[in-house]
Amino acid sequence: MTAVAEQIGNWLSEFSAQAPAAPWVQKLRAAAFQRFTELGFPTTHDEEWRFTNVAPIARRPWRNPPGHPASGLPEEARRHLAQHAPQSNPFVALNTAFFTDVAFFHVSHGAVLDKPIEVTHQAAGGAAAYHPRTLILVGANAQCTIVETFEGAGSYFTNAVTEIVAGENAVVDHYKIQLESREAYHVATTQVQLGRSANFTTHSISVGGALVRNDVNAVLSEGAEATLNGLYLVNGSQHIDNHTVIDHAKPHGTSHELYKGILDGKSSAVFNGRIIVRKDAQKTDSKQTNKNLVLSDEAVIDTKPELQILADDVRCTHGATIGQLDSEALFYLQSRGIGKSDARSLLTYAFAQDIIDRIKVPELKDRLEKVLFERFHEHAQ
Amino acid sequence: MALLEIKDLHATVGEREILQGISLTVEAGEVHAIMGPNGSGKSTLAQVLAGRELYAVTGGQVLYQGQDLLAMPPEDRARAGIFLAFQYPVEIPGVSNMYFLKAALNAIRKQQGTDELDAFDFLNLVREKMTLLDMDQALLNRPVNTGFSGGEKKRNEIFQMAVLEPKLAILDETDSGLDIDALKLVAHGVNALRGAERSMIVVTHYQRLLNYIVPDYVHVLAEGRIVKSGGKELALQLEESGYAGLGIADEEEAVGKV
Ligand SMILES: Nc1ncnc2c1ncn2[C@@H]1O[C@H](COP(=O)(O)OP(=O)(O)O)[C@@H](O)[C@H]1O
Ligand SMILES: [Mg+2]
Fold it and tell me: In a mutational test of the pocket of ligand 1, which residue from B18, B84, B226 has the highest number of ligand atoms less than 8 Å from its CB?
């Protein structure tokens, strides 16, 4: 047996052992699994996965703990589930073949939620694979906040897919907080469909995990606005890959993207930001920024904008920076009596500050401030 | 024992020797002015005393309270009572002025064996010093020096000095770029801190500041050496005859004369 066949083989026996779900889900699963077996796990020969080697995920025989097979989902869920996230991504296909419970929320037309929708995934180790599946439908003129949190202990594999469909004029503030264990593998796709004049903000904060891949894909209708904020912290031998695609499908869309990374130790990070402006999408206004603070000589960052602009009357800017702590600022702080390691952590924290300041859920902001504070003290030592 | 004793100090950047043998003794309570044309090494001397690693000390010795100052990291110098008001204060986005100052004050107090100030006492202290310098309290919540005007930055330096109460303050061209009202305020702030226990090294390009902060001694620095020392009247003499009167070329004046 070839290595690939062997990898798929484990999944095949896991797939056959699944408890059956409702027939329409069963159909999705079967098609997705078929797709997955055709695609196999990506390799670094695959352009989309050039800098991220998923072999450590592919070669392990993960166990898929049984859940409650999705049932009782309403008609509107059926219309959207697995209809948006790209099945061309093998991990999305794998999730679709293996998800059990679906976290489904429907914010009805015009509703304004005063509390966030919280979806927390708490993983236990034991070589388990989790395939969290979330679907959120936000009706026209509705407004909501969504907080997805990923945590866990030990060694496991999280393979998450979230689909968000925002109706006309809807306002959505989304958070994806990745605090997985340091031995965990985390692959996640967030797929967002934005209706006319919808306003969507996402904050992707990535702290944990041994190997992490985040895909955020947003498709914008006319006059829609998307803001993608990202913060990733890696040290030790951590690897994180953030791929984003902002697809301006219709005119007058706006997108702002700011991803910031802090790298230490022998860690590595990838930022790949694709902006598509379709032929039809005149008057698009798009700005992308990726900034990296590299605290050690051994950390590696690959950052790449990818602009595919097919319309002519648009404004698109992008920029990436890779820098170290500012030695003048460091000296200024020290010259006031602040110790070198405190000064380093203060400046590191300051680098992340604007992303943290954009968090509008107070408890979440407090929690992350603590997480970052502890992390940067660790950096500074 | 003198508070500060600089003996034949040499410092370089890269290949270039900028300080070429400086000797200077400062006793407790004294105010020394250091004047000199642009590029003569004034800021280099100030930064070397504060511990900037960019400059390599290649010879000489500096004793502070009898201790080897050059062996101490910058934060230890600050904790021992040295304060440098930067010629070009550094902007630090993302760190609030308030947080910064509190961290600095508490680090210094800890070293000196005094308790950390609680939020209430800290705020009171800060308000008092801001009033002294007629500073807008809103500056406290802004990131350190970020988006401050040139004058605000300079005042912020003196404000920090007022809060941290150093034993030896080194003011590097704190007067440059200030209009006369701001200059008077800064001088007023500095004079309020003068005392038998506090020494100052006031670095300036212009004599004007010394009308308001009257020094005990004036030293003229040229090409990395002190070429002349005297009392406060030396500053007036310089004002009249210019650096050229002492046979010193001033880059700026030379440029101006083209
Ligand atoms: N970081 C540096 N790199 C290279 N040259 C420097 C640096 N700092 C100062 N110098 C040079 O050293 C000389 C003295 O500079 P400085 O101490 O700033 O003078 P002053 O403050 O008297 O104007 C100048 O010729 C300046 O160009
Ligand atoms: Mg200077």
Answer: B18
Q: Are A146 and A164 spatial neighbours (Cβ–Cβ below 8 Å)?
A: yes
**Coil, strand or helix: which one is B137?**
helix
Query: Is residue B78 less than 8 Å (CB to CB) from chain A?
Result: yes
What are the boundaries of each domain within chain B?
4-246
Q: Give the mean pLDDT of chain A.
A: 95
Share of chain B above pLDDT 70, in %: 97
* Contact criterion met (CB below 8 Å) for B77 and B108: no
The full set of domain ranges for chain A reads 3-325, 326-381
Instruction: Find the closest chain B residue to A332 by CA distance.
Output: B90
- Min Cα–Cα distance to chain B from A152, Å: 31
Contacts of A353 in chain B (CB under 8 A): 93-95
Tell whether the model's pLDDT for residue A193 goes beyond 50: yes
Determine the 3-state secondary structure of B136 from DSSP.
Answer: coil
State the residue for tokens 């590097």: B172
Buried b (16+ CB within 10 A) or exposed e, A81-116: bbebbebebbbbbbbbbbbbebbbbbbeeeeeeeeb
| Complex confidence, ipTM | 0.95
Nearest-by-Cβ selection for B51 from A327, A333, A335: A335
Label residue B257 by pLDDT band (50, 70, 90): very low
Residue listed under structure tokens 């998923």:
A54
Taking residues A282-300, report their average pLDDT. 97
C-alpha R_g of chain B: 18
pTM of the model as a whole = 0.90
Q: How far apart are CA A326 and CA A313, in angstroms?
A: 38
B46 C-alpha to ligand 2 centroid (Å): 9
pLDDT value at A68 more than 60: yes
Residues of B in contact with A339 (CB under 8 A): 75, 107
DSSP annotation string for A300-356: EEEEEEEEEE--SS-EEEEEEEEE---HHHHHHHHTTT--HHHHHHHHHHHHHHHHH
Which CATH superfamily groups domain B4-246? P-loop containing nucleotide triphosphate hydrolases (3.40.50.300)
pLDDT in tens, A224-268: 999 999 999 999 999 999 999 999 999 999 999 999 999 999 999
Quote the pLDDT of residue A20. 87
Ligand 1 test: best mutation among B19, B44, B55, B253, most atoms within 8 Å of CB?
B44
Calpha distance B111→B142 (Å, rounded): 27
- Which of B:126-145 have CB within 8 Å of A? 143-144
Q: Are B96 and B143 in contact (CB under 8 A)?
A: yes
Cα–chain center distance at B172: 4
Residue B135 phi, psi dihedral angles, 5° rounding: -100, 150
Residues A153-188 have pLDDT tens digits of 999 999 999 999 999 999 999 999 999 999 999 999
Q: How far is CA A179 from CA A51, A232, A292, A368, in A?
A: 22, 11, 20, 10
